[in-house]
Amino acid sequence: VFKIKAVQLAGKLLPAFNTPTGIPWAMVNLKSGVGRNWGWASAGSSILAEFGTLHMEFVHLSYLTGDPVYYNKVMHIRKLLQKMDRPNGLYPNYLNPRTGRWGQHHTSVGGLGDSFYEYLLKAWLMSDKMDTEARKMYDDAIEAIEKHLVRKSNGGLTFIGEWKNGHLERKMGHLTCFAGGMFALGADGSRDDKAGHYLQLGAEIAHTCHESYDRTTLKLGPEAFKFDGGVEAVAVRQNEKYYILRPEVIETYWYMWRFTHDPKYRQWGWEATQAIDKYCRVSGGFSGVKDVYSSSPTYDDVQQSFFLAETLKYLYLLFSNDDLLPLDNWVFNTEAHPLPVLHLANTTLSGNPAYR
To answer: Which residues bind Ca(2+) (predicted)?
Structure first.
């Protein structure tokens, strides 16, 4: 029944790919099949994190159904991106699906960009490390990220900034905090035997993101935080002081725990658990809060779906044994849904076109 529903849903989504380039629209009307993009997204562009975060699901659906159509759609996106000129080796967040040109040059490992990079790595992992093209794209991308976006603050905190209009903005979003876990996950198999380096980088990002929590009144992290002058890992603008039950920091704690078993990650996760329970629990569930620096926070009255799918799941896994969903056998998609690593040498399905 779930397979049938998945195929029906994918069939409704496929018209989104009917663009001159094959880069899908952000939205598609499920009845008419007409697609469009967000009005605010750089002159009608599609968004990197949206069209770049289909690979795991579509490839797995081709595997389940034996129908290569889904696999072909996402591989076409990859081929197009490989051919494109990338400023400083970085992928801008906006790509116009009509012209095939980048929109404004804004690069981020946080919102608008984040899961594209994650899916390059995870495509390789999910394929039982056979998809070496995805691994190469990941390695190239993180080398460019480290060169152009990763910086150390005056106070010694490693952060990932955002490239905007030719300069680096010394600001990191809560969403970007997932990258600590990504660097750790990609350490094994990294280029030039730099596994130790990337594990260390993951640990430094985890530390910075923990500081963004620790420097608030509620011990919950803000949506974005600056590294300017005397201000480090602290939100400056009112509209960046909110916490909406986001999982990225805890996700990184979990990966770091799995790879290092350093007890501080469980300690940090427990701090976050207690803060969420104390400040976000309401009679009907859990709510985001509008200002993590206020001792009497107001609720936003929303329980985001990722709170159950990710935040609580990563906390549960952080305090579970490693044999629950071991990383050798499972790869988590960007919403923390586990998909199996397909060891296709030992299955009868290796004739599947998606994995030839």
So the answer is: 334
Same domain, yes or no, for 162 and 111?
Answer: no
CA distance 355 to 60: 10
Instruction: Give me the domain span that covers residue 265.
Output: 153-349
What pLDDT, in 10s, does the model give residues 288-311? 999 999 999 999 999 999 999 999
**What crossing angle do the helices spanning 248-260 and 263-279 adopt, rounded to 10°?**
160
pLDDT tens track for 92-104: 999 999 999 999 9
Known catalytic membership, residue 162: no
CA distances from 147 to 102, 161, 163, 187, 247 (A): 21, 11, 12, 17, 27
Question: Are residues 168 and 104 located together in one domain of the fold?
Answer: no
Residue 14's SS3 state is: helix
- What is the bridge-based pairing of β-strands 106-107 and 162-164? antiparallel
Same domain, 84 and 57: yes
Instruction: Please check whether residues 15 and 117 belong to one and the same domain.
Output: yes
What tokens appear for 8 in the block?
Answer: 């029906």
Q: Which residues contact 356 (CB under 8 A, 6 or more apart)?
A: none
Q: Which pair of structure tokens corresponds to residue 235? A: 């939100």
Q: Tell me which of 50, 223, 232, 248 is the catalytic residue.
A: 223
Q: What is the pairing mode between strands 224-228 and 231-234?
A: antiparallel
Place of tokens 């201000």: 231
In 153-280, the DSSP E strands lie at 158-160, 162-164, 167-169, 171-173, 224-228, 231-234
Question: What total number of domains does the chain contain?
Answer: 2
Q: Is the pLDDT of residue 154 over 90?
A: yes
Question: Rounded distance, CA 242 to CA 302, Å?
Answer: 12
Structure tokens at 109: 């490992």
Sheet containing 162-164: which strands, arranged edge to edge?
Answer: 106-107, 162-164, 167-169
334 marked among binding-site residues: yes
Residue 138 lies in a domain: yes
Same domain, 111 and 245: no
